[in-house]
Amino acid sequence: xxxxxxxxxxxxxxxxxxxxxxxxxxxxVEEAAVALATADPEDSDANVIFQGLHIYDDLxxxxxxxxxxxxxxxxxxxxxxxREVGEEVDTVLASLSTAEDVTALVxxxxxxxxxxxxxxxxxxxxxxxxxxxxxxAQNLESMYYTIKQVLNDPExxxxxxxxxxxxxLIYPLALIGTLLDMPGFFLGTTSALLGLYLISRxxxxxDRLDATVERARRSLYAGRTTLxxxxxxxxxxxxxxxxxxxxxxxxxxxxxxxxxxFVQLAAFVFGSIQWFAAAGITTSLGQITDEYIAGSLEWRxxxxxxxxxxxxxxxxxxxxxxxxxxxxxxxxxALTAGTLLGIVSTLAFAVAESRFxxxxxxxxxxxx
Length: 368
Hints:
- By secondary structure, this protein is α/β, with parallel strands linked by helices.
- It is built from 13 helices and 5 strands.
């Protein structure tokens, strides 16, 4: 048996005539078509139902086994509408009294209604699809549906509309720049915004930024100390950079002539290393705290603050030596102290891990 299935995805039939769907059988379908055409003569779904009746009459005249039905969705959205169409197709198939295999001929009024075809195909084999659209409006409807889909898709909307909007801003901004005698500034700013947006889209920076913001949000609500440690560390880095620049300016002012590049670097490190070391220790302690709370702390993680301190001692001594603040004896002692600090901490926590961890993995909190 061939089932002529007329699809009204947005349920114009039910909303405009009050008909209960699905509508099954030649006479009820004709009654529904007349009611919809009377209620709204411009509705293309009426043409779909009449086309279904025409196909039914043509096949019935050839003594073929055929049935006609109208199924509808709703105007809430594509997903829910597709589900309702699928449920009504199930109802139609259950009502057919035949021992023959059932196939369907789907009749629609355009690209939007054809989005439900995979739903129908999952329930009954489809022999064909007949699109019924007023000839003058076919291209217009397809264009309208395409534009509607682009505007409804957040990904496509951002990709297409944002660059287009920036381009459209170039002319009015150029006029404003001309009035303010700064055309280059406004044109350059607009071009930079467009360039940065395209680069971020090409490199996927937008997704990474969203992921970073989401991780920060989860960390904030979860009470993780790492987020606070990062904020404090960022502040210490800023203070250290300012302190390093002050030390560099003081060294340049105290030196007659041109300052050697190694001396400049040493001055910056000498003035900032203690702040940078504090930032490193802060972040490592925050990470250690979160790992301990989560139950995933390993003994070797505790090496981090000692490594940071050891490197800070070494860098401070080297930079001070280049600035003639300390002598060779202090440098040798600092290098030895930094090396020993790193080695001792590594050995100490390796021994602790082997003796007190279950399977050599996690600290035994019960022994604390």
